[in-house]
Design goal:
seven-stranded mixed sheet; 7 strands; about 200 residues; about 35% helix
């Protein structure tokens, strides 16, 4: 059974590759910021679910009989939804806001087939950042480079981002962008993992 990942995220792709899953990637073409603006009155987890479903359904509509994985993450700091940083200034502002605070990283992972969502999983991780001064934040941003601006919260815990955290409570795969254990269970239940021909 063909599998498509509706994402260009190298981290999500690496998680699937490491698990030995055969898949291809597809650009979902969803304007995430437009969706977030339209859902300002909704709970952060509703936004994560909506975005993951839109991504999967958009790719599924032109790829029938294919399992399409859609995933999205939102960062919730005391009810405030964070978007990806657009430049160095906004990256510094985000990390300054998160410094010393506990926030919620919400990961929604879904599967679509024939333009219908057939499986979904929602994961919430509590993330407690260290207290950081402006010098430390600026040094961190110069170390990780601009590609990290594409990650909500400006951190990738599988890389230098782990230095920023005092404690993490949650599934490490979900924090990286895909809820791998529940996803593997879905593949196992549907005989996608090991084919006994």
């Amino acid at each position: 059974m063909d599998i498509l990942l509706a994402s260009k995220s190298p981290t999500r792709a690496k998680l699937l590759e490491n698990a030995g899953i055969e898949f291809q990637t597809a650009d979902h073409g969803v304007d995430e910021e437009e969706v977030k603006m339209a859902m300002l009155s909704h709970e952060p987890k509703e936004v994560a679910v909506k975005l993951s479903e839109l991504k999967a359904l958009k790719v599924s509509s032109s790829n029938p009989d294919t399992l399409v994985i859609g995933s999205d993450q939102v960062l919730d700091l005391n009810g405030k939804l964070f978007s990806k940083a657009i430049d160095k200034k906004s990256a510094i502002e985000q990390l300054t806001s998160l410094s010393g605070q506990e926030h919620l990283l919400i990961t929604s992972t879904v599967i679509a087939k024939n333009n219908t969502i057939i499986w979904r999983h929602l994961d919430e991780s509590k993330m407690k950042m260290r207290e950081m001064d402006e010098k430390t934040i600026t040094q961190y941003i110069s170390e990780v480079g601009e590609e990290t601006f594409n990650i909500v919260g400006v951190y990738a815990i599988e890389r230098e981002g782990i230095k920023l955290f005092k404690s993490i409570s949650g599934d490490v795969f979900s924090i990286q962008g895909l809820s791998m254990l529940p996803l593997m269970q879905f593949f196992w239940d549907n005989k996608v993992l090991f084919k006994n021909d």
